[in-house]
Amino acid sequence: MAEPAPVALDRNLKSDIAIRLRQVGKVYDNGVKALGPIDLDVRKGEFISLLGPSGCGKSTALRIVAGLTAATSGEVRIAGHAAAAQSIGFVFQEPTLMPWATVHDNVLLPLKLAHVARIEADRRVGDALERVGLAEFAQTYPRELSGGMKMRVSLARALVTDPDVLLMDEPFAALDEITRFKLNNDLLTLWRGLNKTVVFVTHSVFESVFLSQRVIVMTARPGRIAAEIGIDAPERNEDFRTSAEYAAYCRAASIALAHASDAKAQS
Fold first, then answer.
1. How, if at all, do strands 214-218 and 225-230 pair?
2. How far is residue 166 CA from its own chain's centroid?
3. Over the stretch 109-119, which tens digit does the pLDDT of each residue have?
4. pTM (2 decimals)?
5. Which residues have CB under 8 Å from 123's CB, separation 6+?
6. How far apart are CA 12 and CA 196, in angstroms?
């Protein structure tokens, strides 16, 4: 088996590319082929979604980009201004908050690990909580928060280091529809204001179309890229969510997803 290739910072990567994957694949020690090979470029400031059925390798791809899992083959290149790990923020499926720590101290953790001076760290934590609408809950404990608020804390923790790239692994999947819609809207506001590159994993056609500039449709395991759908809709709001245009994009994504599943079944 080939030596796993690490995620590498590449200052010479084409100026408009934030993430580049080339022939990236993942085979687990038990022989299960989970991913690929896949090729993908993500432009700086772009919001893309990885859409596919459960178990198709979406989360595996995200963890490889983050450096949390080593690819078995291929290479991953990250363009940034610091070490690759410092250029990336990650929001997991679960908030993974420390129950004994306040909201402030949960968000503070990455800065504490990076040995950022406390005065500067406190300022950055305050800014991050303000951005996600939780400034007044800084001294609250996770047990006192709703599911949506916990996910906002997780998002603030990912943003507090000011990463170039934000990776989000089905962060809203467990939330009720009303909360999910609200967080989708707020996430888009954050993305526009901060100009981050976002890669968002979801198995929801409707969420992927509403959020993304580009939807990457993946086959069942081993996940490969079956289709890419560009979403040309500059205004993402409730009018768009109820529009014929939105419905047409969702229909196109659903058809692509069905074709991707059929292709896997026939292979």
1. antiparallel
2. 6
3. 999 999 999 99
4. 0.91
5. none
6. 19
